[in-house]
Design goal:
This protein is of the alpha/beta class and about 250 residues long. The protein is about 50% helix and about 10% strand. Strands 3-2-1-4-5 form a 5-stranded parallel beta sheet, with helices on both faces. Strand 2, helix 6 and strand 3 form a beta-alpha-beta unit. The model has no long low-confidence stretch (mean pLDDT about 95). This is DUF218 domain-containing protein.
Length: about 250
Amino acid sequence: MFVVKKVLGSLLMPLPLLLIVLALCLLFMSKTNKKSYFIAWFSVLFAWCISTPFIAGKIISPIESKISAFELKKHSHIEKIVVLGCDAYANNRLSANAQLGGCSLSRLTEGVRLAHHYKNAQLIVSGQTSAHLMKLTAIDLGISSSRIRSNPNALDTKDEAKQLAPYLVDRKVALVTSASHLARASDLFAAQGVETIPAPTQFYSFSSQPQYKQFIAQITVLKAITVHYYEVLGKVWIKIRRGINPEAL
């Protein structure tokens, strides 16, 4: 009964429910235009498939399995801990941490963990919308404000790399960002002459979900797929820009 309840509850979530309704509508649509009818069915089924933990795991796990978490015992000395910006939702009624999205909180948590271990390292928080909120949250979590540098002027990772490079060249730098974002971020910092030590966070482990959820579409899974797809587009954009102008990025 527990599994049945969970399956029905999962199917009634907005994404799977919408896809089911669309599929039912397609059953009653005119099939005179077979090409459009096929494309519509393909779109619904494709959206369902890439939103399931089973398919997402097949796509994401091979990528993330090549990425290792930061191990404290392997690095005796770190001078700079760079936490790249992510989602934030400004709302003055809330505390700083409550205004940070899941991505920002995940990155900041890892950065604060490292800052507590490496007592003399400077914590650098970046991102136009998230830097100030990250700084306030880090202070609340026990990091002295004198150890924190804020970089609120960066619009994207390219800006973060360019703006922070003067403070990071020839230093031991831990780069904290999402696992999906790590390769592109490391590349952009390397292009500015900054060697970084990866400190990835926000891994997706869809294989650990219960079997009854593996083939049910979930909005959180679709978001993870979207994040990884965005990184593919970002890497393609970098190649195009560098192909036109090697000094561009």
